Amino acid sequence: MRALRDLAGPAVLFPANKPIRYEGDPVEKLYLLQEGWVVSSASLADGARQIFKVHFPGDILGAPSLAITNAAETLRALTDTLVCSVSIAGLSGIFAQFPRLAMLFFMSAQEERLILMERLLSVGRQRGVKRLAAFLIHVFDRLAMIGLRRDNAVDLPMSQELIGDVIGLTTVHTNRVFSELERRSLIERDGRRIVFCDVDGLRELAGLPPRQFVRNPAWLPEGPQ
Amino acid sequence: MRALRDLAGPAVLFPANKPIRYEGDPVEKLYLLQEGWVVSSASLADGARQIFKVHFPGDILGAPSLAITNAAETLRALTDTLVCSVSIAGLSGIFAQFPRLAMLFFMSAQEERLILMERLLSVGRQRGVKRLAAFLIHVFDRLAMIGLRRDNAVDLPMSQELIGDVIGLTTVHTNRVFSELERRSLIERDGRRIVFCDVDGLRELAGLPPRQFVRNPAWLPEGPQ
DNA sequence: CGCTGTCTTGAATGAATTCAACCCATGTGG
DNA sequence: CCACATGGGTTGAATTCATTCAAGACAGCG
After folding, report:
1. Smallest CA–CA separation between A150 and chain B, in Å?
2. Which DSSP category does B66 fall into?
3. Is the CB of B172 under 7 A from strand C?
4. Tell me: the pLDDT tens digits for B38-71?
5. Which pTM was predicted?
6. Buried-state track B83-109, b at ≥16 Cβ within 10 A, e below 16
7. Angle at CA B73, nearest 5°, toward B68 and B79?
């Protein structure tokens, strides 16, 4: 990890709502998100936008576009954000020198695939209410995993329009579906703060199978001493 | 690649429609698809199914479940299929010995992410007709890429129900949307054989941005002599 | 011959979008 | 301090898209 940090350039501040990279830009580097929230998204000709992922500190940004010449996703800061960047050649050096780290990168890419598959399952096969429930639970769990959530509440720095872009609904319908979750006493809202009053109920509504992650498997390549 | 082939077990025949692995099964290995078509999918409690990907010869199967204890996706043969398997520890050995190959695996995982993102964009933000167009074009292009398509036609070994499970529509609606593509003279059908009479029109309808893949970049780690 | 699976069509229902309007908090400039 | 603009959030009504339920057509197969 020290090797990776040495490769990374200085941390750059992106204020809330500022784009870090546009889709179509030439792909030159990867980004490491140190502080703040970022969304990756793409748009269609008619302006419709789909958000692929809400990124938290510790995430690698821009990796999916590694194998293409022009970026497929736009990266945009949701909050004030600290980001540093790594050249692709640098990443390649990591693979040559640190097989254990390389394998961990590979596994993390597979984990991202899993998250995308889960969202696709939700968007393709569930109604709006369940989609929103699934997204909220996803954020809830991920924030806990990286230690950024203490209590049963989350401050979501996203407008309902953005949330609609995650789950594939219009602003208006996202709003109605939010109200329904509240009416069913699964959540409470205070501005953009969301209180998860009935996590189990929400999780059951979301209806996605639980996942058990393997964190430090024996079969990983040896690391350096 | 020879190293990989040495690791792989013998090729096993799975007849059409036979499951190779169920979601929930313990994750022990990866699969290499040598011959035939396979779909990976997952289901919800109510029985709704989402197909994540249609796999062709050369694909690695089961990788997304690498980081979890119980498989997230069901793998099922669409046609008669030849599959061999690799232990996860074996893959790990590849990472330790062949950094160039490891990097290629990593990039292929990112490419898979890209494909999933594209499908999510389509399913989340497009109407049925465009979703089907996008899927057909995707299959059309991928088959050409691996040299399994000569003319302007594809034999899709999938029922309309399965196709609906890819693009997130019911059987009935998938059927209507198929008819519309035909009515608009974008395709012709003869059983499960699909003739792409107007590839450009279909591609435009699908409305997804074109991708330029980097195939052998200079920054890849050195391979063995 | 009667299965079964798949494709197809019609009609009714339901979910989500569209269009429109209104509310409210914030911020800004006169 | 007011007038006004701006970005969200919320609600209603009409419309469109997709699902559901039902039934018929057809081919392949025992």
Report:
1. 25
2. G
3. yes
4. 999 999 999 999 999 999 999 999 999 998 999 9
5. 0.96
6. bbbbebebbbbbbeebbebbbbbbbbb
7. 140
